[in-house]
Amino acid sequence: MTAVLTRRPGLARIRTAGSPLHHLCLAVVVLVTLAAVAAPWLVPHDPNAVDLGSALAAPSAGHPLGVDAAGRDTLSRLLLGARTSLLGPLGVVVFSTVAGVAIGTAAAWRGGRLDTLLSRSTELVFAFPGMLLAILIISVYGEGLLAPVLALAVAYLPYVSRLTRSLVLAERERPYVSAYRVQGHSALQICLRHVLPNIAPVVLAQSTINFGYALMDLAGLSFLGLGVPALTPDWGRMVFDGQTAIQHGYPLSAVLSCAAIVLTVVAFNVVGERWADRVARRDR
Amino acid sequence: MSFAGFAARRLLEMAVTLFAASFVVFGALYLAPGDPASFLLAGRSASPEALAAVKAQYHLDDPFLVRYGHWLGDVLQGDFGRSLTYRTDVSRLLADRLPTTLLLVAMALLVVAVVGLFLGRLAAVRGGATDSAVLVATTFAVGTPSFVAAVLLQGLFAVRLGWFPSSGAGEGFADKVWHLTLPAIALALYLIGMLARVTRSAMLEALDSEHVTVARSRGVPERQVIRRHVFRNSLGTVLTTGGLVVSTLLVCTVLVETAFSVGGIGQLLELSTSTKDFPTVQAISLIIVALFMTVNLIVDLLLPLVDPRITLGTRGAAA
Amino acid sequence: MTTPGNALDIAGLRITLPGTARPVVDGVDLAVARGETVALVGESGSGKSLTSRTALGLLPPGAGTAGEVRVDGRDVLAMTPAELRTVRAGTAAMVFQDPRAAVNPLRRIGDFLTEGAVLTGALTRADAAARAGRLLRAVGLDESVMRRYPAQVSGGMLQRIVIAAALMGDPVLLLADEPTTALDVTSQAEVIALLAGLRRDFGTGLLFVTHDLDLAAAISDRVYVMYAGRIVETGPAQALFAAPRHPYTAALLASTPRMDGPRGRLAAIDGQPPDLRKPLPGCGFAARCPLATEVCDRQAPAPAAAPGGPDHTAACHHSDRLEGSPADAR
Does C253 touch chain B (CB under 8 A)? Predict the structure, then answer.
């Protein structure tokens, strides 16, 4: 009974182009990564060389960012600290992404009991905050980087697998998958060659955001003295060392390592969220 | 679905998850390299009596599941075993320290709720430069781990300015609140950012809905539109973050209490982990997980009050 | 052309939005007398909803306006926010397309009915509740629904509630923006009958916004056809339906399936409405029009009256080439 006319979804929102904050954060990500890679060639001093005579010295030509309470060069420790501080989260993200994608894909493709098992265990892991799980494992295994990295990877895994599961479920419904199936391609082939490349941007955006959280958690564990071994330069550890220096009226090394942590986490979060926004909009 | 049926189902789900969590906490012991008995005594005088005591406490000569059953039975009666470091009952240690931590968490929660909701609402309603400022501020807030906030706040307000004590938990209620102010703010900072963002986006979504335009078209004053149709409708989303907020607060007490030497269960967790005092770690882990789940349950039971569609079984019919 | 005593008088209304090259509403003249039913017909994006919402001062963010929109003789576009609120709470009211979206799902229906009147201070809470009860009975519902939530009633019932809510302030002008599109067929007929009856009983002017030309012809005294932000044709419903003077109206009629007409493919209108991001110097319909000539792209046609029908005007350079039967239009 009605004339045929198209519905309108509402005026498309006109968006402003890339924000300066995003560009700044992208620059920080690149800079921090470069510093971590090139640290051994950049450092002016041995990060563990103790020069008690100049302990808590202010910045000078020899020590551009000053010296900490134990007489160690702050700049050298910050640069080398970038390595451990980024390597740990990288391990967490790589492990949780690989395992999470594998489990999520399998659960979505197979469904049934495997899927039920996944959603049950996901609920369980969500009840354990990453940091708590890491502490529980450390209390069994002792200090060191491997145990907390594995524990955090397990804690972050459900975020990735749940996301992957929903993405694969949506992808599986698309016509090209049944087209390949009819042509006799195996499920594994279709997943690896077609489904995974299609869902990769969304998963990687999530992993970038996870990187920031993993950095915060691992730095926290180092601050507690439960993460990296005592002498290894690490930003979280430097905050702990700097806390005593603050009491002596020398806040520089603590403030600098705090700033390194905050800036890196913020940068990864902003870049990851921006990326997630963009792939989400492209999908629509 | 009736409310009672809904509540019963959620309660059952929580019991199952809690049961599984206790299994993980108990089973973690058996991830340790070597013999559990020697692990439990790690580094401590391994007199035959002590060994026998540990074996008896953990029923180490029984099969795994029987041991688990004994342990769970004890835990359900409030007996978490004996601390190997403090040589006293773990439940005693917890009873001494839990009130301080709960006060700290409550203070932080109050700050998070008040400031987070305020900032989120401000950003959503004002928009423009206010919105951008709140967005940038919260971006930094969610990038600041609580121990960083703790060390910086301590350095500025306790050491440099001397406005607050730099450590300890104080005596008596007012003194305690004064001692715990900086730790509470350090604990709250990250979550203020998170809650402000959740509130902001939930309110923006509500602002977009047709019924807000309808309310305006009927002459409802803008303040009332925001209160009755925008803020009210964003509350459900905000409330669902409650469990996450409380569990994050509880876990981060380990960092903040250590930084400020507060002496609650957070600091106890740090001390018992570094001294491998496993029964204490187990007990605190269980308490944190149980509190998280309890809060989640409360949130789930409160949600139908905020959103009548949940028990009416028509959720998602309209935003 | 504003006449005192009209419920709604729109004169030369022009609305511009940021990011567009031409006005989304471009020189619209429209009048609704008290007690009259007027239909505003157009497809999505033609600017018909925007035009009707302007009567309540509801404009998209960043919109610029020119012209006059008089509701009960007073220009809405020149009002202070407080004056606008009194118009919204009393003089004019709107029935929206989708009742599920129009009513806050988290508040009780009684709250929805009374909030406008109570919060603007027009009525006390008790008076508002009493009036809401009377209006609910007038739209054929029981006042017990006031204690329910929107999710507990059907879409048709909810639209009756929205209509009752619109009548709370005893308006002289009722705007209905596709009030039946979101409903099933039975509820549609009921709502139409209800609106017609209420218009008679309460003496309000009714502006009925729709994309359905048949429906418009069936219920209204006069019809305005809108395309690309302009009124392309207006006239008494019967005259316009029987002998359209604009190719767009003719094409719309031809694209409507008919029980008594020949079976077969529907005649859809080829092409798309003109892009908002490009200026539009000529006639908006030229690109899709079978009668278009070179003058149509160059010069926007002015409304001209039909021979023998001064109320029936169309903005087309080639009105005279259109024959009476809509089926011959293409």
Answer: no
At residue C157's C-alpha, the angle toward residues C152 and C160, to 5°, is: 135
Residue among C18, C215, C268 whose CB faces A4 most closely: C268
The pLDDT of B156-175, averaged and rounded, is 80
Contact by Cβ (8 Å): C228, C280: yes
Distance from CA of B319 to the nearest CA of C (A): 7
Q: Which fold has domain B90-306?
A: MetI-like fold (1.10.3720)
Cβ-based contacts of A220 with chain B (< 8 Å): 145-147, 252, 255
| Residue A177 covered by a domain | yes
State whether the Cα torsion B82-B85-B88-B89 is positive or negative.
negative
pLDDT band at B261 (very low <50, low <70, confident <90, very high): confident
Residues of chain C contacting residue B319, judged by C-beta atoms under 8 Å apart: 101, 105
Q: Which of C50, C192, C211, C214 to mutate to probe the A interface, most A CBs <10 Å?
A: C211
- Complex ipTM: 0.84
Q: What Cα–Cα distance (Å) separates residue A270 from each residue in A93, A267, B140, C312?
A: 17, 5, 10, 60
Chains that touch B (3 or more CB pairs under 8 A): A, C
Report domain extents, chain C.
6-102+173-191+205-329
10 Å Cβ neighbour count for A176?
A: 12
Q: Provide CATH code, domain C6-102+173-191+205-329.
A: 3.40.50.300
The H-or-E segment that residue C110 falls in is helix C109-119
pTM: 0.82
Q: Count of domains in chain A?
A: 1
Rounded Cα gap, residues A7 and A2, in angstroms: 13
Q: How far is the C-alpha of A251 from the C-alpha of A239, rounded, in Å? A: 10
Q: What is the mean pLDDT of chain A?
A: 80
The CA distance from B245 to B295, in Å, is: 9
Domain-located, residue A205: yes
Residue A51 lies in a domain: no
Chain A interface with B: residues with Cβ < 8 Å: 21, 120, 123-124, 127-129, 131-132, 135-143, 212, 216, 219-220, 223-226, 236, 239, 242-243, 246-247, 249, 251, 254-255, 258, 261-263, 265-266, 269-270
Residue A261 CA to residue B258 CA, distance in Å, equals 19
Helix C155-166 crosses helix C109-119 at what angle (to 10 degrees)?
A: 10
Q: Provide the residue ranges of all domains of chain B, joining segments of one domain with +.
A: 90-306
Q: What CATH number does the domain containing A88 carry?
A: 1.10.3720.10
CA C75 – CA C77 distance, rounded (Å): 6
At residue B200, the pLDDT reads: 92
> CA separation (Å) from B32 to A92, A144, A151, B148?
21, 14, 14, 31
Residue C194 has pLDDT above 90, yes or no: no
In a domain, A9, yes or no: no
Distance, in Å, from the CA atom of C14 to the CA atom of C147, rounded to the nearest integer, reads: 43
Q: Which residues, other chains included, contact A252 with Cβ-Cβ below 8 Å and sequence gap of 6+? A: A58, A59, A65, A66, A74, A245
Give me the domain span that covers residue A253.
Answer: 20-37+62-282
| Contact flag C215-A1 (C-beta cutoff 8 Å) | yes
CA B80 to each of CA B10, B140, B280: distance values in angstroms, whole numbers, following the listed order: 27, 40, 8
Q: How many CB atoms lie within 10 A of CB C319?
A: 21
Mean pLDDT on A132-159: 86
Å between B17 CA and nearest CA of chain A: 6
